Amino acid sequence: METPVINLEGLYGDNLENRREVMEQLHEASEKWGFFQAFNHGIDEDLVDKFKRLVNQHYEEQMKPCFYQSDMAKGVLQNNQTSVNSSDADWETSFFVRHQPKSNIDELTDLSDDLRKTMEEYVKQVTKLAETLLGVMSENLGLEKDCLKKQFAGEEGGPTVGTKVAKYPECPKPELVKGLREHTDAGGVIFLLQDDRVPGLQFLKDGHWVDIPPSPLPSGKSTIFVNTGDQLEVVSNGCYKSALHRVLATKEGSRLSIVTFYNPAANALIFPAPELLYPHHFRFQDYLNLYANTKFSPKGPRFQEMKKKLLVNETTVTV
Ligand SMILES: O=C(O)CCC(=O)C(=O)O
Ligand SMILES: [Fe+2]
């Protein structure tokens, strides 16, 4: 099964026809898959390469030695299934950086200055991409362009943004443990920079696990992988579903994964956009009255019209 790969270039130019085409591809991918790979994403490719290189270096120097000394890793390596309960272990080493509403990057003193600066610049650019995509998704759902961004911002006036920097170390016994157990993501839109070479990520599509190939594309273009989380499913009233995914452990090498979460503010009020809800609590006869004059027109506007008819003490009032 070919997973969607979308060229975002059309979102950044003036050609309306190109823009419309990309919007349609994004709508279809969000509706039918819940994830897609994007290229020409507007994020500086040299910056992405540098970021990946610095994370790999940090892993080799600081994370890898600790990981293989952990009880979990030792248990797996000794093939000792009693000391590894693979239902609550992940073959992963990671750290989390908060960017918004308040960055904690200065507290992570074991990161080099270069890595911190590079991450900050990358997050600035990926946040811009997130907001561009939320605008397109809002329009595609028939909402005001800034609707999703505003809802995510809540009263705090901005989203929650954080990055999980991870490696899935090479695993000699991949049959004993997962890299990351299956789950859906809790939040809004999620951006993944993955390894150039080592595979492992899978998404569930129509009951089958689909491999998400490592980036970059054969053309040499860098890709970013995008998926949607549980809150977008709620706000879009189920139009955009959050998909189950997992990471397999592998003997093929250690896999890099940098995941940036663009989520609602902690106190943002989450609800399905009213425009996307069916009309409710109307008398069938009132529907039939409207239907009599609109039978040969699309049902969408008829549903919208029904929302204006409220039942007040058993009397229909048109508002
Ligand atoms: O590492 C990956 O490819 C996916 C990570 C992930 O799903 C997560 O951190 O929520
Ligand atoms: Fe995830």
Automatic annotation (TrEMBL):
Domain of life according to the entry: Eukaryota
EC class (word): oxidoreductase
PANTHER family, alphabetized: OXOGLUTARATE/IRON-DEPENDENT DIOXYGENASE
Record bears the keyword Repeat: no
Pathways per UniProt: Alkene biosynthesis; ethylene biosynthesis via S-adenosyl-L-methionine; ethylene from S-adenosyl-L-methionine: step 2/2
Organism taxonomic ancestry: Eukaryota, Viridiplantae, Streptophyta, Embryophyta, Tracheophyta
Protein name: aminocyclopropanecarboxylate oxidase
All residue ranges annotated as the Fe2OG dioxygenase domain in the record: 159-264
Catalytic function, reaction form: 1-aminocyclopropane-1-carboxylate + L-ascorbate + O2 = ethene + L-dehydroascorbate + hydrogen cyanide + CO2 + 2 H2O
Pfam families associated with the record: 2OG-FeII_Oxy (PF03171), DIOX_N (PF14226)
Keyword Oxidoreductase: yes
Molecular-function GO terms, alphabetical: 1-aminocyclopropane-1-carboxylate oxidase activity; L-ascorbic acid binding; metal ion binding
EC identifiers of the protein: 1.14.17.4
Record-linked InterPro entries: DIOX_N, IPNS-like_FE2OG_OXY, IPNS-like_sf, Oxoglu/Fe-dep_dioxygenase_dom, Plant_2OG-oxidoreductases
Gene Ontology terms: biological process: ethylene biosynthetic process
Originating organism: Aristolochia fimbriata (White veined hardy Dutchman's pipe vine)
